[in-house]
């Protein structure tokens, strides 16, 4: 089974592809509005971007799961907020608001492609670590080594990159974590936050891991 894990990176997306749980390649897609046609042969595409708009139970459940590192999960803004220019008084962070084009784009893609699921890499890494908090922040050297070790423990070894070679290290590791969750989704062993996904416009809304 082939699956893809996708994470946002500057100007586009970085992806890690697995075949039967093992690293099979990487992709770099531009621009942000790129479709995921590169993954036509993937059974599951797991993307580190909210699908749907806030407020969402998925964000509340993920923040509770990430106790001690809840700030890594931000509340997804309502669509009306994303349609406004960022400024004081909107009640959302600049980071969350800046993801608006990605959220809108992926939500639109997911509405017509049921292979697309939402994941959160830090949730995935904590699940890989048996539910225990990681010791180091992902952008630190120790954080990268900790996450590489977790990926290897779960059968994902990345010794060489092709298209994604110049992408930021943490974006590639996040894409690999997304791919780990995609594999679990494909096998039917994934869990969700919340435990029972919300049904919005016929789509199950949750963070999968």
Task: Give the helices and strands, then pairings.
Elements: E1 2-9, E2 12-19, E3 22-29, E4 44-47, H1 57-65, H2 79-82, H3 94-98, H4 100-110, E5 116-118, H5 121-128, H6 141-153, H7 169-187, E6 192-200, E7 203-208
Helix pairs in contact: 5-7, 6-7
Please explain how this structure is put together.
- The protein is α/β, with parallel strands linked by helices and 209 residues long.
- 33% of the residues lie in helices and 22% in strands.
- The protein has seven helices and seven strands; from the N terminus they run ββββααααβαααββ.
- A hairpin with a 2-residue loop joins strand 6 and strand 7.
- Helix 5 crosses helix 7 and helix 6 (141-153) runs parallel beside helix 7.
- The protein starts with a strand and ends with a strand.
**Which regions have little confidence, pLDDT < 50, spanning 5+ residues?**
none
Q: Give the assembly state of these chains.
A: single chain
How far is the N terminus from the C terminus?
17 Å
Rg calculated over all Cα atoms: 16 Å
User: What structural class results from the helix and strand content?
Assistant: alpha/beta
How much helix, percentage-wise, in residues?
25-40%
Query: What is the total tally of β strands?
Result: 7
Number of helices: 7
Shape: globular
Strand content: 15-25%
| Helix and strand run | EEEEHHHHEHHHEE
């Amino acid at each position: 089974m082939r699956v893809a894990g996708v994470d946002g990176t500057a100007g586009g997306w970085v992806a890690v592809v697995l075949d039967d749980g093992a690293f099979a390649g990487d992709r770099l897609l531009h621009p942000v509005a790129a479709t995921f046609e590169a993954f036509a042969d993937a059974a599951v595409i797991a993307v580190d971007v909210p699908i749907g708009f806030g407020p969402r139970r998925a964000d509340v459940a993920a923040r509770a799961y990430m106790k001690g590192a809840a700030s890594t999960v931000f509340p997804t803004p309502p669509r009306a907020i994303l349609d406004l220019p960022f400024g004081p008084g909107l009640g959302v962070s600049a980071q969350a608001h800046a993801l608006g084009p990605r959220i809108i784009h992926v939500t639109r893609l997911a509405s017509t492609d049921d292979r697309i699921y939402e994941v959160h890499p830090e949730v995935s890494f904590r699940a890989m670590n048996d539910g225990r908090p990681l010791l180091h922040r992902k952008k630190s050297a120790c954080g990268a080594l900790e996450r590489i070790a977790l990926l290897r423990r779960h059968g994902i070894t990345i010794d060489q990159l092709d298209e994604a070679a110049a992408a930021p290290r943490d974006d590639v590791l996040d894409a690999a974590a997304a791919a780990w969750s995609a594999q679990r989704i494909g096998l039917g062993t994934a869990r969700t936050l919340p435990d029972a996904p919300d049904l919005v416009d016929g789509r199950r809304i949750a963070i999968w891991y």
